[in-house]
From TrEMBL:
Function: Catalyzes the reduction of 1-pyrroline-5-carboxylate (PCA) to L-proline.
Molecular functions per Gene Ontology: pyrroline-5-carboxylate reductase activity
Keyword tRNA-binding assigned: no
Compartment(s) where it occurs, according to its Swiss-Prot or TrEMBL record: Cytoplasm
Transmembrane spans: none
HAMAP family (alphabetical): P5C_reductase
The reaction(s) this protein catalyses: L-proline + NADP(+) = (S)-1-pyrroline-5-carboxylate + NADPH + 2 H(+); L-proline + NAD(+) = (S)-1-pyrroline-5-carboxylate + NADH + 2 H(+)
Record keywords: Amino-acid biosynthesis, Cytoplasm, NADP, Oxidoreductase, Proline biosynthesis
UniProt EC number: 1.5.1.2
Record domain Pyrroline-5-carboxylate reductase dimerisation: where: 172-276
Protein name per the record: Pyrroline-5-carboxylate reductase
Origin species: Microbacterium paludicola
Pfam families in UniProt: F420_oxidored, P5CR_dimer
Length: 280
């Protein structure tokens, strides 16, 4: 993790699952020296974030001007609402944005051109695609900067997301493809854990035992990959003794064409991202 740097005032408009995950990592890092204001529609959601240190949590149900108030006071404005709600929110905050502020999208499929068309082409915009391990400081975040985002904007936004994991900078045309790998990727891993747990139950283990075996195997394997620095294929080979049990299991998985399954799954996710961009 890079050294923590003090960040300017930040607004997160729509601190739902993804905005909330980024907020958790940001607060845990201690980097939000300028303060963070977050908005949610309901008092219940706002109350859940109200006790976080350095965070001002606003319920739009109680304070209808919460989005504009937060945006007007921030140098970095994160847009965390659902993609269909983005245009209305941008029209709401456009008149109050600070000169030099950067607007950061958390919304899948919403293009920089869409932001520029509403905010104006002079407003700095950066698209981001984090994933939910931001909550524990282990996110992968893709960033794609718009043409008016300066080096300072890019460095600030990068520092923000590095408080909750690692950052990959890509051209905008790759951000949707990135979302199919790291953005959706935690769900793929959780699905694999579900299925391995189910297989363990099918072999007579109690649910609790099955969960421990499956979950801790994934956690341990990921930790080994992280600390060893080895290629995953090499680590797999070390577990796979010639003519052993693992080799037989791997053969079944390879016969199932996992390469094709993952290619088709990520292609489907990419197609949906493009549909969202088209407003479908």
């Amino acid at each position: 993790m890079p050294d923590v740097v003090a960040l300017p005032p930040i607004a997160i408009l729509g601190a739902g699952s993804m905005g909330g995950a980024v907020l958790s990592g940001l607060v845990a890092s201690g980097a939000a020296a300028g303060g963070v204001t977050v908005t949610n529609r309901t008092a219940e959601k706002a109350a859940a974030l109200a006790d976080l240190p350095g965070v001002t949590s606003v319920a739009l149900a109680d304070t209808p001007t919460g989005n504009t108030d937060a945006a007007a006071a921030a140098d970095v404005v994160l847009i965390g609402v659902k993609p269909a709600m983005v245009p209305d929110l941008l029209r709401e905050i456009a008149p109050v944005l600070r000169p030099g502020a950067v607007v950061v999208s958390l919304a899948a499929g919403v293009t920089i051109d869409t932001f520029a068309g509403i905010l104006g082409s002079d407003v700095a915009v950066i698209r981001s695609m984090p994933n939910t391990p931001a909550v524990v400081g282990k996110a992968v975040t893709g960033l794609a900067a718009g043409p008016t985002a300066s080096d300072v904007h890019r460095a600030t936004v990068r520092a923000l997301f590095e408080t909750c994991g690692v950052v990959v900078e890509v051209p905008e045309e790759q951000i949707d493809a990135l979302s199919t790998i790291s953005g959706s990727g935690p769900a793929y891993v959780f699905l694999l854990i579900e299925e391995l747990t189910r297989a363990a139950v099918g072999k007579g283990f109690a649910e609790a035992e099955a969960r421990v075996m499956a979950e801790q195997t994934f956690i341990g394997a990921a930790a080994l990959l992280d600390t060893s620095g080895e290629d995953p294929a090499e680590l797999r080979r070390r577990v796979t003794s010639p003519k052993g049990t693992t080799e037989r299991a791997i053969a079944v998985l390879q016969e199932a064409r996992l390469d094709d399954v993952f290619a088709r799954a990520t292609d489907a996710a990419l197609a949906r991202a493009r549909e969202l961009a088209a407003g479908a």
